[in-house]
P/Homo B domain-containing protein (Streptomyces luteosporeus), 457 residues
Amino acid sequence: MPLHGPTLRTAPRRSRGAVLLAAGAAATAALLGASSVPATAAPTTATAGRNGASAPAAPDISVANVKAHLNQLQSIANANGGNRAHGRSGYKASLDYVKGKLDAAGFTTSVQQFTSSGATGYNLVADWPGGDPNHVIFAGAHLDSVGRGPGINDNGSGTAGILEVALTVAKQGYKPDKHLRFAWWGAEELGLVGSQNYVRQLPAAERGKIDAYLNFDMIGSPNPGYFVYDDDPQLEGVFKDFFATRKIPTEIETEGDGRSDHAPFKNAGVRVGGLFSGADYTKTAAQAQKWGGTAGQAFDRCYHQSCDTIANIDDTALDNNSDAIAYGLWTLSGGSTTPPSGGKVFESTTTVDIPDAGPAVDSPLTVSGLTGNAPSALKVGVDIKHSYRGDLVIDLVGPSGRTYRLKSSSANDSGADVVATYTVDASSETANGVWKLRVQDVAAQDDGYVAGWKLTF
Ligand code: TRP
Ligand code: ZN
Ligand code: CA
């Protein structure tokens, strides 16, 4: 059945010859250039790292996603007596939420149990498979709240920040040179109990493999400061570099040295670093001058109070600090983002006619010289000349024969041409082989041709 009849037409029908003539000039012009497909998609490219080495650009972490995790933690507190404290049901529910996300993303998780104040506590440890096991870059945050409130800034913020960074590692298929480990600590509020337990049970040889432990406890304070731990000059320098690129001044963290989960690592001889946006200390006039906010008021007036809710978060601080975590991990771990071949382009510039209301036509493209599977974000650039693109159904056909729908037909889309870049999860296909762009014109009156298409691996 045709998707639209002649009476629905708004665009005047052009003759096939006119279409070819008009579009042919454009296609010829494009063929003279490097590519027949205009650069519509921003390419993801590696940039030089801070030491001049080729390192992949650290991703921009979605603060919306971080906030979504915080909203979940708030809901968990609401459903469990208003808190997520050690030994209470809201703690285990928080752990299950974080663990579920990590397991689904491909992390290897483990839960470590301990007893404190007569209640069972839990640490959650998540390893990203791969990287040099003798060089571990480790990020941690405490997952428990105090009993008096939901603990959304303290420390839902660090919890959600490192969770979203971990999920971004997975989403990007990041392949770090060093091994990445993340942990969410229990019973920090009872005196760093979970992290102390972890470090105590860790064999000395394993401690020696940790190149850096980075701690994130309170990174979204409502009247924020930007504090960097100064325990290790190199780790301090990495974070300072990041904030310098954003023109955000920083200060050294002094609000109670050793008051969080980095202390047990530091005491065991591990190099530590971290970020902090302030707790119950008062913001000075000079600090309000450089960071904004309110002088004479605590960085977090709801610190350890029932009002440490989802309303107790400064989104900008949360955003900047989440991006800083990603920058720190990417910078310290080296590595590359899949695919290793990074942006290899295969292109067809063969013209293939698309018959009006006819059978599907294929434009084949042979890919060779790659290894392994295609990426989970394969870019498919399409350049089709057509006088009524709503007629067109477009699929990518992988070497396995499996098809991936790029575009459906639409009776209402009367625009001409399809010039677009689609992203396809092609990770179940081998990269090498014959790929096809399959195009069918499903409604009568207008036609066109494939001018070219390309795959970016
Ligand atoms: N860890 C403290 C808590 O959870 C908060 C805190 C106070 C803090 N001072 C700090 C965290 C300095 C990191 C650095 O209650
Ligand atoms: Zn606390
Ligand atoms: Ca048609």
User: Anything to note?
Assistant: The longest strand covers residues 132-142. The chain has two domains: 16-337, 340-456. Residues 124 and 184 are 5 Å apart (CA to CA). The chain has ten helices and 21 strands.
